Design the sequence.
């Protein structure tokens, strides 16, 4: 079960989804969660607003993840993630040192959600 965290594993604070130049991918199926890789991204938000084709590329970049964590996720990005069955999660002010504990909590919550999910999904 892969999750993406906006930014580099040693960066503080976690960036806004639309400004993330990197996404760190973790495997939550292991104890403790294991860092798999860091993926480069071209941010879709800028001074002139959002870039929909780039947003679509960012979502595709994260397509193998079940969730993504960022400081903030705008409504268009949230809808795009949900449309690809990726759970958008916001958490501001998180430091790199706090990410392992946050991932453990996320793992527990995602497992509980998966058990309640309707069979048709």
Sequence:
């Amino acid at each position: 079960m892969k999750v993406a965290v906006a930014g580099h594993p040693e960066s503080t604070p976690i960036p806004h989804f639309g400004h993330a130049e990197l996404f760190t991918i973790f495997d939550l199926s292991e104890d403790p969660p294991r860092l798999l890789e860091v993926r480069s991204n071209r941010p879709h938000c800028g001074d002139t607003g959002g870039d929909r084709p780039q947003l679509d590329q960012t979502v595709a970049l994260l397509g193998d993840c079940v969730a993504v964590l960022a400081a903030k996720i705008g409504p268009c990005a949230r809808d795009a993630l949900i449309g690809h069955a990726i759970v958008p999660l916001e958490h501001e002010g998180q430091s790199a040192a706090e990410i392992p504990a946050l991932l453990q909590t996320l793992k527990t919550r995602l497992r509980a959600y998966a058990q309640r999910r309707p069979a048709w999904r």
The two ends are 17 Å apart (CA to CA). Residues 2 and 27 are 5 Å apart (CA to CA). The longest strand covers residues 34-40. The beta strands are 2-6, 22-27, 34-40, 45-46, 49-50, 67-70, 87-90.
